[in-house]
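pasting for ref. prot 1 ->
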Amino acid sequence: MFENTVKWLVFILAIYLAFNAVVSVNTPLKRKTYIVQMDRSAKPGYFTSHLEWYSSKVQSVLSKPEIEGQADEEDRIIYSYETAFHGVAAKLNDEEAERLEEEDGVVALFPETKYQLHTTRSPMFLGLEPDDSTSVWSEKVVDHDVIVGVLDTGIFPESESFNDTGMSPVPTHWKGACETGRGFQKHHCNKKIVGARVFYRGYEAATGKINEQNEYKSPRDQDGHGTHTAATVAGSPVRGANLLGYAHGTARGMAPGARIAAYKVCWAGGCFSSDILSAVDRAVADGVNVLSISLGGGVSSYNRDSLSIAAFGSMEMGVFVSCSAGNGGPDPASLTNVSPWITTVGASTMDRDFPATARLGTGRTLSGVSLYKGRRILSTGKQYPLVYMGGNSSSLDPSSLCLEGTLNPRVVAGKIVICDRGISPRVEKGQVAKQAGAVGMILANTAANGEELVADCHLLPAVAVGEKEGKLIKSYASTSRNATATLAFLGTRLGIRPSPVVAAFSSRGPNLLTLEILKPDIVAPGVNILAAWTGELGPSSLPTDRRRVEFNILSGTSMSCPHVSGIAALLKARHPEWSPAAIKSALMTTAYVHDNTHHPLKDASVATPSTPFDHGAGHVNPMKALEPGLIYDLEPQDYFDFLCTQKLTPSQLKVFGKFANRSCRHSLANPGDLNYPSMSAVFPEDTSIKVLTLHRTVTNVGPPTSTYHVVISPFKGATVKAEPEVLNFTRKNQKLSYRIIFTTKIRQTMPEFGGLVWKDGARKVRSPIAITWLTPLT
């Protein structure tokens, strides 16, 4: 007991010292990066350019040098923003920032924020690649004119996934560049990778100069994450793709005819908001049609979220923005990137798995998953000693988690060690076990992960098992004096049922920023996804991993986001006139909410049906999205009018309104009236309010003459009806409005979920519904 206490104290002390090392540098006079948003229209005429004016503003607030005559050699401005956002990123101390915020023409200041990455068969699973025919999606010349900007860790250009054979010339509207540096030259760009840029000034201002011996200060990807997401969006078909024999088949992106522009914003120490903002601004100016952003930070109010503000500016310029929802599930309200003008993507499984087994000395065989392939193989005819370093209590300790330095080689050498999931990366636990002399590992889920299984390319024979199986194995190891086991690896299995299932790690609603906006928007494949990989790093991403592979299998909402980005590119190619909101509507209203066993989608964390707080509108269905019938369209002003319902002050609203000099039209009675494809009715604490009405307008993008009838699922706590119940369209692009009336019967303590569907006999246009009754104040 004392030994465990000491271990935890050492562990907590290390975190405390690291935290204090960060905090201690934030003294009032230390310079930090601030993003400075400017009112572009306020520039005095005597300045020849906006940048000259911005520079003058920054210079005017700088502190005097402590020693007379000493010059400030440092260039304070590290970026200027001109397209999706207007202003600069500047290095200022706290006093200078306070003075600048008071200056005329300054709209807002945002302190630098650190973001994190949200770390095959999917085209066929999504219906994009029928077995018996050439895909109707990928061979149209028009697809080649769509460019997707991927903000990530860069790109590994040698991958066959970025081969441009047969592609038409780069679109004439493209204004991007191929920036060069160590490991990345002009010839690395082609008709597939049409642009590549790097953004590191904010990162260096926060962390110091990049060590160019250890890290490529160029678009070259040595992390692998950016290569994987870019290939998922628009990778060219590669036959025989696999990871060490697993998932063998043809790997291709969602939009194999689309182009990729790589914007490297993430480095060894993270991704910083001033770099991300500069990349978004540059990408929109370069001419991207879609932005794919598989990263996120915490949730802050709309007017304090620089990525949200930049995404708003991108949307104004007609660019579709797709972001990962985050990997904070299954905790409720764990979402990031929740702004309604962003498409927020959660993660789900596919019908492919990588089964492995753990056979105990009792003869019992328990199922798990693994991507292990190596020289070390455990004999299935032999049993190996099994050890668990944890205690009998439900609480975990550092040894049971197999944290660095916690396993005693004298205890685990020659044995299979059981490691609890949590705190450290899954593959790192295997490395710790291997270094301590273990011959194998069983990775056991805890309550946080439930029965969800994520396969990894471990450095030693290892099998991941669910929480129930984990408890059984740990109990056996703890109570049997001579516990033994062996591990077996069974390759790739297709046709898994049920699928899809919402991943336990996928971040969940409700959207606490605005309950009336249902988030996430949609789920897409994000578990065990095969795509291109960098040649700079092994498949486990551990420095000690000397293996090199052309493809890797990863999981995370980072993987689901580019699926949707690629499908959005296909929709943009087929419907170039569609707005970002129209594309989002088509994706959401055609999503499905039943798995391949015809039952409602399940939640991997609890094995019960998932809700719109988990899966949004449902699972993306690309072929249906091509012809949605009706769309819920939105203009930039509509989103601004939504912001006018969010209790923002006039100066706070300015951060969104300055580009087009917008003002509130007061057209929405409440936030839920935004013409969004999903519906969330929120009854206030006042129990006397029993009726709520939401308004929607649909645009006919199907046959000119069509009649739609409404079907609404029943609710326990309220009656829900639409008026009118029939919509008669007589021409294409005709708009018709309806209202949805919610009348409380019995207030419920928990939200209720259902759906509203417009049917014309050939199409179903479905919107998820959430009804929430806020608890009365006592």
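and prot 2 ->
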Amino acid sequence: MALLNIGDQVPADGVLVTGHSLRIDESSMTGESEPVRKDSKRPFLLGGCKVEDGYGVMLVTGVGTNTEWGQVMATLSQDIAEETPLQVRLNGVATFIGKIGLTVAAIVFIMLFIRYFVQDFKKSDKPLAVVKRIVGIFSVAVTIVVVAVPEGLPLAVTLTLAYSMKKMMADQCLIRRLPACETMGSITTICTDKTGTLTMNQMTVVKAFVAGELRDGDDFSSFPDNVKSLILHGIAHNSSGSVFKSKEGAWEVSGSPTEKAILSWGLKIGMDYEALRSKVNVLHVEAFNSVKKRAGVAIKLETGEVYVHWKGAAEIILEMCDRWVDVDGTEGPLDERKALEFKNVIAGMAASSLRCVALAYRKLDPAEVPVSEEERATWNMPETNLVLNTIVGIKDPCRPGVREAVATCQVAGIKVRMVTGDNLLTAKAIAQECAILTPDGVALEGKTFRNLSDHERLLTARRLEVMARSSPTDKLLLVRTLKELHELVSVTGDGTNDAPALHEADIGLAMGIAGTEVAKESADVIILDDNFASVVKLVRWGRAVYANIQKFIQFQLTVNIVALSINFIAACRSENVPLNAVQLLWVNIIMDTLGALALATEPPTDELMKRPPVNRYDPLITNVMWRNIIGQAAYQITVLLILYFRGPDVLRLKGNPARINAYNNTIIFNAFVFCQLFNEINSRKPDKLNIFEGILQNRMFCAVLFVTTILQVMIVEFLKRFFKTTRLSWRYWLVCLGIGFTSLIFGLLIKLIPVPQKPLFRMKSKQHGKHKRHSKKHSHGDSLISEESTV
């Protein structure tokens, strides 16, 4: 047993057994802002909620993982770290390249080792010379391995993700899990809430159907007094909000957005809130219930008359009424013809994307009301034979830019689905206003989707664009169904009971303003301004991350192939390789640290949102990249081999053989580095001819090119002993610069070559683990684990 008083937190799940009715704030669990009444009819209590009013004794029925809160947290703790699609592909690329490098290094070592013992071993009889020669052969093999192994890939990915995460903060996106940066770029569908995300959550009454007349605009002051009095009593007393005066003397309204809208409307039509509240005795309050979608209050006037006022979803309140108030204040029968008229009014408001709320009342015989407070605590107020008073249409305007953001998603191949608790007509109207609902799209209620068979649900989910009157369980079911269709799903949520859906989705997006702490803990990203437009910015950055990593891979593979080929061919000829280990270490720094820094900081472009999402079956290295890599590598290898074999003759180098060889190797090293610098510019735009577009806006890229050039000059001219280089005359500096610049021109010519759509190269990637649906971390790589992976 546990005793509960005002302000207490419910310690565990349980049942109210004795005491007055309680008003419980369940916002931490359900996201509902309205307190919920608990009594003998509704005795179940959820642990973690707060007692707003009343007292009582509860019987504890569950603690720890046996509570609703515990089950939610247990679901969240099932997170098993799995690699994202990009990480799986990168591992495949790194493993593939590493194996090639090790194979080539082994071949070179064996070949040089055999050559030495066959040709040169007899010429040297000193053990120290033999050991020195073997160490030299081994160092050549190690140099090849150093060139081949792409140890810069993890650094490039980390730099790209970290830089993007910092930039996303400026776009109101707080990244909680770093891999979410790139995964968001592959999202194929977004399931978004309506209120506060697509709309501004600033509700205003813009229409009212009173006494058989539909009124528009802000002027509602001409209502008949007898009708207005009933309306004002219903507004003033049947509300969880409040009205008070500010320090400046102006009226201010507090409460949920819906309550604020109705109270503000009451003030416009002449409501004296304080006077009305002071002249009545509140007998009983039925707090808003998210299941019944209505709230009620019983009041006793100074005259002794007792009234019950109900307020809630218009279609639900209408079903509770059998009369309506005419223009002269008389009550008329609500027959089928009149009921149809009211239904048409509700439908018309909903079609105009208005939330419809109805007010109704019933005059009671004082004898019907329990006398004692204890009896009233468990009293069920009359819910039938009510008199329909008014129907108001509340407008929650769409956020500026939402329609454009949705259109951007559609162009980008991303399906936007709206999941809301509003009625179907209002949801469809808002969806059409936001350009979410298309002519071929499906809009239905959560219970309809829930009751479909598995096969029907899969078929419906493909075309589903609006889910109305949905619960968090319906949202979770939708996410799981979409993942069964191999969609990469992003979902928004703000309540604690949204946590399972946020956790199940590939990317969970919690709302920073309206979201509960549990929802935020379950999410990968927190949208700080609760704005759908920020979600689109997140997608844009996610695609930029993926594109930047592809640019870096194209750049690094070109360097690897060229360096590996030059040293391998040179090693086959002799042990004198033109690119020594120290020089290749510098090249690795260019590739890994500086290259990653330059290409990782490329900002997103509008072209990224004109492409379809990256399919989980698509190769990481595209045909366009292979074209650029092979073409650029062919040019560089050809030029550098010409310098290696015929350089002294072509360049007319003079001096003793050792000096000529040192001079020629320095020119090869210098030309090789400048080829990479200019190829770095080529890599900025793998599929565009204008490679200089926006280059000055990326200060980091320009700074990296400048610093690399300065350091290269210092290495050749001043660090020649350490790097085994020779100072070059200005003439040969121009030669190296010209060779590098030509790679820029050659790169442009390569891009004119068309490429097929079918991937040129495929490689099977064997990944551990089975395909699992219960965890989003498994779902990231489900197809990559169970299917053939292309790199």
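Residues 763-791 have pLDDT under 50 and may be disordered.
The CA atoms of residues 203 and 396 lie 5 Å apart.
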